[in-house]
Design brief:
- The protein is mostly helical and 283 residues long.
- It has two domains: 114 residues, no CATH class; 169 residues, Farnesyl Diphosphate Synthase.
- The chain is built from 15 helices and no strands.
- Helix 4 runs antiparallel to helix 6.
Length: 283
């Protein structure tokens, strides 16, 4: 299953290159909603990468403000010339996507510009929900499947997605001498944040990442308890749950050592699993 390169829109190509997990999920949307899913994912990529593309927080805030203004203008009937803003505006018009979700995503990304670790797991969980769940909610709106149960499931799956993402990014952040793991879990494990990457801290760090991974698994279980109430149309937007499962299994295989190469590898059969889930109306 896939789309030839020459048939992909600019948003489709951007998402396939930079966010292959969301690209794969988008392929399972009906053809009439697929470009909207690509546009939503491309917008998310644009704001998620802000921190990595600026040299100081003020420049990051300016970039996020550019997107706040661009979104406001779209809802006012004006569209900036931009390879993502233009198709996003089309998706907003066609499917009536809610502005509040875009604003919430942008606001949540301001936290990326803060170098400080999260004070506690509750703060990390709040960040995870705010930076990922609205993407799924917008996807549900594009499918006309945003009922109450589906929205609650999206919040759980989005939270799980971002929690696992934070764990998988630990090695990358270590290369930047940056630590985002919550201070309360580090303290409970006896980890001094200043020495987090010391070899003798490895078992304790693995215990911390295991706890976060387990919390993500709990969110997936809560989401799946809502599957019947959410309805089959919603499952196409919530297939990310199947990809999160594959990431959690690889973390488990690596014994939650985030420096193990397996943590970053994509599951070889993930497309088959998603096809199986989609055919059965599951996630």
């Amino acid at each position: 299953m896939g789309i030839a390169e020459d048939r992909l829109s600019p948003c489709g190509r951007l998402v396939r290159q930079h966010d292959p997990d969301r690209y794969l999920v988008a392929l399972f949307s009906p053809a009439e909603a697929r470009e909207a899913q690509f546009a939503i994912a491309a917008f998310n990529f644009e704001i998620a990468r802000v921190r990595e593309t600026v040299s100081e927080p003020l420049l990051g805030e300016m970039r996020l403000q550019w997107w706040r203004d661009a979104i406001a203008e779209i809802y006012d009937g004006r569209v900036r010339r931009h390879e993502v803003a233009e198709p996003l505006a089309e998706a907003i018009r066609e499917f009536g996507l809610g502005r509040v979700h875009f604003d919430r995503l942008i606001d949540a990304r301001s936290r990326d510009l803060d170098e400080a670790p999260f004070a506690d797991f509750a703060a990390l969980e709040t960040y995870a929900e705010a930076t990922a769940a609205p993407v799924l909610v917008l996807g549900l709106e594009a499918l006309g499947a945003a009922n109450d149960a589906a929205l609650r499931a999206a919040r759980h799956i989005g939270t799980a997605w971002a929690l696992v993402g934070v764990v998988r990014a630990v090695a990358f952040h270590a290369g930047q001498n940056r630590l985002l793991l919550p201070m309360d879990l580090l303290a409970a494990a006896g980890v001094d944040p200043a020495r987090a990457w010391a070899e003798d801290n490895a078992p304790a760090m693995q215990a911390v990442t295991r706890q976060i991974s387990d919390k993500a698994h709990d969110h997936l279980a809560a989401a799946r308890a809502l599957r019947r109430a959410a309805g089959k149309p919603a499952t196409r937007a919530l297939l990310a749950a199947g990809i999160i499962d594959s990431h959690i299994r690889r973390l488990e295989a690596a014994k939650h050592n985030v420096f193990d190469a397996r943590v970053q590898q994509a599951a070889p059969l993930r497309q088959i699993r998603l096809t199986w889930l989609a055919l059965r109306g599951r996630f």
